[in-house]
Amino acid sequence: MMPLRRTSEKAARASAAKTEGEISLADEALFANDTFYLAFAEKDVEAMSRLWAKRHPTICIHPGWPAIHSREKIVESWERILTNPDQPGIDFYNPVAHEAGNVVLVTCYEELPGGVCIATNGFVVEDGLRLFHHQATPCADPPPPKGAGDARGTR
């Protein structure tokens, strides 16, 4: 399994600020994005399930898969992925949050053995931030990781 990159500086600040009650929605989304990839890296089906919205419409598009539109089927897809003993590890880097009202889209790159995907993870305000959208697709010419806070490495 490839190591999960260090938590981004913004996500680390978000975690600290959350305890003080001062956190932007974008920073909270970066923290939620880190939580998503941690659940993926640790193959934690329960954590992955908790991340997905229950009331907001959801969609998930895994690389090479058709679109999945219901929360129940999305969670089932993650269970199949995360319980697959042949599922490779994952790393991610260069997360960028794009805030729009009560929605935040986080774009980042996913590094897997054999290639890099570009991903969009959508978070919506619902009892905190919850995932409502995930889409990943192969990236032919990915950029390198930016900055020390976003560099790949061990946790």
What is the CATH topology classification name?
Nuclear Transport Factor 2, Chain: A
Which structural class fits the helix and strand makeup?
alpha+beta
User: CA-to-CA gap between the ends?
Assistant: 13 Å
* CATH architecture level-2 label: Roll
Please report which band the strand proportion falls in: under 5%, 5-15%, 15-25%, 25-35%, 35-45% or over 45%. Answer: 25-35%
Helical percent range? 25-40%
Which ranges are low-confidence, i.e. pLDDT below 50, for 5 or more consecutive residues?
Answer: 1-7, 148-155
Largest sheet: 5 strands, mixed
Query: Looking at the structure, what is the overall shape?
Result: globular
- The average pLDDT is 87
Helical segment count: 4
Spell out the helices and strands N to C: HHHEHEEEE
Number of strands: 5
The domain tally reads 1
CATH class: Alpha Beta
Strand order of the largest sheet: 1-5-4-3-2
Instruction: Output the radius of gyration.
Output: 15 Å
Description:
The protein is built from 4 helices and 5 strands, in the order αααβαββββ. It is of the alpha+beta class. It has a single domain (9-142), classed as Roll (Nuclear Transport Factor 2, Chain: A), CATH 3.10.450. A hairpin with a 3-residue loop joins strand 4 (115-125) and strand 5 (129-138). Helix 1 (9-20) crosses helix 2 (25-41) and helix 2 packs antiparallel against helix 3 (45-51). The longest helix has 17 residues, at 25-41. The protein is globular, with a radius of gyration of 15 Å.
Attribute tags:
single chain, 155 residues, alpha+beta, Nuclear Transport Factor 2, Chain: A, 5-stranded mixed β-sheet, 31% helix
